[in-house]
Design brief:
Layout lengths: L22 E10 L2 E11 L4 E5 L6 H8 L7 E6 L2 E2 L5 H6 L2 E3 L12 H9 L7 H6 L2 H20 L15 H14 L4 E5 L7 H16 L3 E5 L3 H7 L2 E6 L2 E6 L1 H6 L1 H8 L2 H15 L5
Helix pairs in contact: 3-5, 3-6, 5-6
This protein binds adenosine-5'-triphosphate (ATP).
């Protein structure tokens, strides 16, 4: 039997002299009771890369994002962002170091307009003091104007065409996802984590999100996305990590990873299982059954 082919090199690797990784996840491990949700996961993402985290349901992908953003503390392992270790820091401190995210189940603030939602994201970076805010000083007023103008710019950039003054929760699903991305961008991240950004979108909308990811990457961002849409992954991700049952199955270029036997098996089951199921079906139907 031939040995498996080596994974093709992905651009922007990390030997000496290359830039510090945007995200450096080493040996990350998390158990919930007796269940090892994430087991010894190591992922290194160079700056300005679109990296996908793939795997069947329950593989541990969202748990990895939750640990990178500080929502869940790991049992073991370390996480560094541009060389700065963030393991066990609270979420707001990790956000201040330039990590933002969107959620698998959209989490918009109830009762806020589209514009207010994005303005809320910008508060992480605002410089005004409490006294300035209460007294509505000229500096405060100027900053508020700037923040609102920037929020409008971000909404245009992510392709929200709806009126910015309607309640965000009343928008169609695809636009709600875009508003969430704009809110994350308002925190001025260097690394943006997206949990299933195209869930519930049709092909054309998914393609637009893919193109937006490329624009964001080209403007300097590093993007890490959990995604089930393989077409999007193959077209837009430059590298992927494939997980299954908490463990790492494969890492490298998307097409290469998706062709590996253990990755195909994790998604589609073993060929021998498929043959067994077909036989069982035939047996159940009995002779002459169709
Ligand atoms: N807070 C929690 N408490 C207990 N178990 C959890 C918790 N969060 C996740 N799990 C379990 O950990 C495992 C990994 O879950 P996770 O959500 O990370 O998977 P996933 O790969 O993101 O799946 P999906 O694609 O379905 O979203 C699952 O078995 C899940 O039920």
């Amino acid at each position: 039997m031939n040995p498996p082919a080596a994974p093709p090199a992905v651009a922007g690797g990390t030997p000496s002299g290359v830039p510090v990784p945007a995200a450096d996840i080493v040996g990350l491990t998390k158990a919930f009771g007796g269940l090892k949700a994430v087991s010894d996961i190591t992922i290194q993402v160079p700056p300005q890369r679109i990296h996908g985290i793939l795997g069947p349901n329950g593989a541990g992908k969202t748990t990895v994002l939750n640990m990178v953003t500080g929502f869940i503390g790991p049992d073991d392992g370390t996480i560094s962002v541009f060389g700065d270790e963030v393991t066990h820091l609270p979420p707001y401190q990790i956000a201040r170091r330039g990590v933002a995210r969107t959620y698998q189940n959209i989490r918009l603030f109830a009762g806020m307009t589209v514009l207010e939602t994005v303005v809320a994201g910008a508060y992480l970076r605002r410089s005004s003091t409490l006294a300035g805010a209460i007294l509505l000083s000229p500096g405060e007023r100027r900053e508020r104007r700037e923040v609102r103008a920037r929020a409008r710019e971000l909404l245009d950039r992510v392709g929200v065409r709806a009126d910015h003054d309607v309640l965000a929760e009343t928008l169609p699903y695809g636009d709600q996802r875009r508003v969430e991305i704009a809110r994350a961008l308002a925190t001025e991240p260097r690394v943006l984590l997206l949990d299933e950004p195209t869930a519930g979108m049709n092909d054309a909308e998914s393609q637009e999100i893919g193109e937006l990811l490329v624009q964001l990457r080209d403007s300097g961002l590093t993007l890490i996305l959990v995604e089930h849409n393989m077409r999007l992954v193959e077209e837009f991700c430059e590298s992927v990590s494939v997980m299954n049952s908490g463990a790492m199955l494969s890492q490298g270029a998307p097409r290469w990873c998706l062709e590996q036997d253990d990755v195909r098996e994790a998604y589609f089951g073993k060929r021998s299982d498929a043959a067994r199921i077909a036989t069982l079906r035939r047996v159940r139907r009995g002779p002459g059954g169709s």
